């Protein structure tokens, strides 16, 4: 079982080691996610991102040394680390400091049938409208391929080109 925790600078630091210990005690995989600009209250700032490297430092200082897990899937969002004493695994989702967009193979379908080719997509493909309009499998497959082909190079959070999508994380899913 994996437990995800978004980590925010100035808020989450005291909880990192207790969460790591809790996960070790209960044989869970704790995964820490860098804070991304998808929050409903629009309070994201780059300065509030607690970076994965800092979280690793806190865990190593508070619990013990960690090393990268062998055989990791390059398309997986988390970089996994293992406690060198064999006490379990921890994942780092370094979406901001180390984007993994180049190997991302994800698309998302919202509850109302909109296909998004990235968490930060500004455009969506309306699969529900196709289905309700009587589109056949090949038409839907063509729409899916077009969406995937239009996938961006990356999310651009770290550049001045970044545009925050209107849709928030809770209405995207995942
Ligand atoms: S391409 Fe989009 S969905 Fe994929 S890792 Fe990058 S930001 Fe996330």
The number of E-state strands comes to 8
Termini gap:
16 Å
Instruction: Classify the secondary structure makeup into a structural class.
Output: alpha/beta
Strand order of the largest sheet: 1-2-5-4-3
- What's the pLDDT, averaged over the residues? 93
Strand content: 15-25%
Low-confidence stretches: none
What hetero molecules are bound to the protein chains?
iron/sulfur cluster
**How many independent structural domains?**
2
Helical fraction = 10-25%
What series of H and E elements makes up the topology? EHEHEEEEEEHH
Q: The biggest beta sheet, please? A: 5 strands, mixed
Shape: elongated
Based on CA atoms alone, the radius of gyration comes out at 18 Å
List the defining traits of the structure above.
174 residues, alpha/beta, three-stranded antiparallel β-sheet
């Amino acid at each position: 079982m994996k437990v995800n925790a978004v980590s925010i600078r100035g808020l989450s630091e005291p909880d990192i080691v207790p969460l790591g210990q809790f996960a070790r005690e209960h044989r869970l995989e704790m995964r820490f996610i860098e804070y991304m600009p998808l929050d409903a209250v629009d309070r994201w700032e780059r300065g509030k991102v607690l970076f994965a490297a800092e979280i690793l430092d806190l865990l190593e200082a508070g619990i013990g040394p960690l090393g990268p897990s062998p055989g990791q899937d390059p398309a997986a969002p988390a970089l996994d680390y293992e406690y060198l004493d064999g006490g379990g695994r921890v994942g780092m989702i370094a979406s901001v400091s180390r984007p993994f967009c180049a190997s991302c193979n994800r698309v998302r379908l919202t509850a109302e049938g909109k296909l998004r080719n990235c968490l930060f997509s500004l455009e969506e493909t309306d699969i529900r409208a196709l289905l309700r309009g009587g589109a056949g499998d090949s038409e839907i497959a063509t729409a899916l391929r077009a969406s995937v082909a239009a996938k961006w190079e990356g999310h651009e959070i770290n550049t001045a080109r970044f545009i925050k999508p209107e849709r928030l994380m809770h209405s995207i899913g995942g």
